[in-house]
Amino acid sequence: MTAMDHHIVRDLEDFAGIASDWFWETNADHRFTYFSSRMEDVTKLDSKQILGQRRTDVAMVDYNDPKWQAHLDDLYSHRPFRNFDYAIRRPFDGSLMWLRIAGQPLFDADGTFCGYRGTGHDITPEKIAMQKLEASNRALAERNTELAETRKALERSANEDALTGLLNRRAFERDLQQFFDGCGSNLGLLHVDLDRFKWVNDTLGHAAGDAVLVTAAKRLSQIVGEAGKIYRVGGDEFQILLIAQRAHENVRWFGEHIVECMRAPFFYDGHRMTIGASVGIALVDETITSPRDLIDLADGALYQSKRSGRDTLSCAAYETRQERSFRRQLSSELPKAIEKGAIVPFFQPQVNALTGRIVGAEALVRWKHPRFGILKPGRFLDIAATLGLSAQLDRAVLRQTLRLADRLPKMGLSLDSIAVNTSAGRLIRHDLLSDIRQWWLNRDCQLSIELLETLHFDDMHESSPVTEQLRQLRDLGVRIEIDDFGSGRASLTGLLRVRPDRIKIDRNLIQAAARDPMQQSVVAAIFDMARALGLQAMAEGVETAEDVAVIRKLGCEVFQGFYYARPLPEEAFCRLLAEGLKTKMADPEGLPRQSTLP
């Protein structure tokens, strides 16, 4: 298999992990050479027993059907095909299973046939339902009542979530349009997302996750009652339409009660779990011209709740129609921007205030947009999260950052360390370790991974996936840092579990301490705690010489902020690194003095 083939297979596996279909390939002799792992999950068949066989060798039912002959004609004529349905009997229990497949012939550069690549899908439930419907139709004269009930059941199935009994996404989109057309200004939307649901699945399994979802649905139903409708629209996401007469006046009350109710512990199989929920609220007003506008606003408010520390609610800041159009454009362009390398790191130096020397840098993501210029993360990170692209953004930044670190010695430059932010989704991906092994070539430049506030340190334990990943990162020599410490998202217990190499004190706390003596005692206590635990500590967000002088007196030596430099593109950062800082340093006595560095 060529390198390109390996790349294609890896991409197929990545995509297959989130798709309901599975992927397959055959060679020129029509023998199976590849199945994605999804096939085994869905069909319960062992791919090892099928690889090397033709489709006609796999326990088929009624292969004399004329449709089979037509299918074989397509195969031997090397024609593409779609929606070919056939049945097999599973060898381990003899049960009947219906499959729907599609395939595309593959040819090499010379036009020689190489085989097929295609998808497969389990349509057994669909076939069974269709057979039942056909049987009901045949007996329509005698079983009108039974047929009516069957139709009602099918309608419920199409609009209800099987696990929770709530309405599903299809029903939400239908009802939202109807209510939007009919209720006008009396319509409110709450977007609810469970904060720590993924941790439950990762640590206790999907059965525990299902139990949490069922309990959460019951709690939401008790709160909302007859005032609105509740929909499960995703894994741990719910939408609530408030259609009561005074929806605008009551929507915040509902949101607050939902947040409070979700703080109560969940229980499963003897385990006590703290979940919490974030809520985004949007209301119809004169700026809202479509259901999509309302959804976008609620999504933005939900993202703000998560950025604010989760377990809270936010009301939408109403955007202009132009802003909503802008966000939709970014949503459509972001996947291609990642693919084409338009996502780049900017570098903000980290400086020793006593020497004025640049001792490190943090890589911060930017989007070089062909029309709008350099976009800061606040413009697109929430879009990336909604699209499930956060890990891809992190990967792009890590790769380019480590490429810069590798080039520095060739330019006659050196840098002690460089830090890269890592989202929760990226941290638990297996390719993080392999990427670092492959890309981190200049080991004289220390690599640090900054853990973002989306991680829940208090929920970590010795056997959790994140704990194991952190251990392996340390084995590679990577340092672990906690970003935004002091923002209330990482407790002392969580800190002791992670045992980071360094903490970065939140910029808001630093700014408050620079102006408020009461806050200074808090920051001083953090520095004392860090020293007692053997951790390094640095301050981020310093903007003036006075900020540096005040925080320096509290025991800090390393700083990051606009006072020294804003985040810089690679070329400008290298130039700054070569020339040295020509700015002020904080004297040990707290008085600013001029740098004597060239």
UniProtKB/TrEMBL annotation:
CDD domains: EAL, GGDEF, PAS. It holds the Pfam family EAL. Residues 327-581 form the EAL domain. Residues 130-160 form a coiled coil. Keywords: Coiled coil. Residues 82-135 form the PAC domain. Residues 185-318 form the GGDEF domain. PANTHER family: BIOFILM ARCHITECTURE MAINTENANCE PROTEIN MBAA, DIGUANYLATE CYCLASE DGCP. This is PAS domain S-box-containing protein/diguanylate cyclase (GGDEF) domain-containing protein. It comes from Yoonia litorea.
